């Protein structure tokens, strides 16, 4: 059974990011995966302190609500991270999550643990799904150091309408299919 960890970086419980991530989770579960689903805005966690404890030890020195799920990433087969685009970037909790992934990287910049499939979900107001490709690619440049490979990316446009994803059958089908692929 594949283990998938999903991080929802949206503050909106019924928004487009949530709709897409829920469909990915459904597709994964219906195809036999064990899914851990975390809503970052409901968790109490600190940002990386830059203490470099994780360079000496394998774990972050911070012990908070994010710690346990980060430890589950070590044995996960896939990770999915979703965020709306606010002010041309991911949300703050998602940025803090990425910073807290630092312990997954060894001292030499290579992954400490096995490779994991990565999927990213972004929702945005702009109609052009490639509007922020440079930014998304910049973020994805860190993935190999964490052991994240074969990024699959979904971008939903029209994000100011909270029903954009739900009414977009193509993106909903892609999300379900992505869950199936990650489960196999």
From TrEMBL:
Source organism, top-level taxon: Bacteria
SUPFAM superfamilies reported for this sequence: Flavoproteins
Keyword Flavoprotein: yes
Residue ranges constituting the NADPH-dependent FMN reductase-like domain according to the UniProt record: 3-121
Gene3D superfamilies membership: 3.40.50.360
Coiled-coil stretches noted in the UniProt entry, renumbered to this chain: none
One Pfam family of this chain: FMN_red
Protein keywords: Flavoprotein, FMN
Flavoprotein found in the keyword field: yes
Alphabetical list of InterPro entries matching this protein: Flavoprotein-like_sf (IPR029039), FMN_Rdtase-like_dom (IPR005025), ISF_SsuE-like (IPR051796)
One MF term in the entry's GO annotations: oxidoreductase activity
Protein name as annotated: Multimeric flavodoxin WrbA
Organism per entry: Eubacterium oxidoreducens
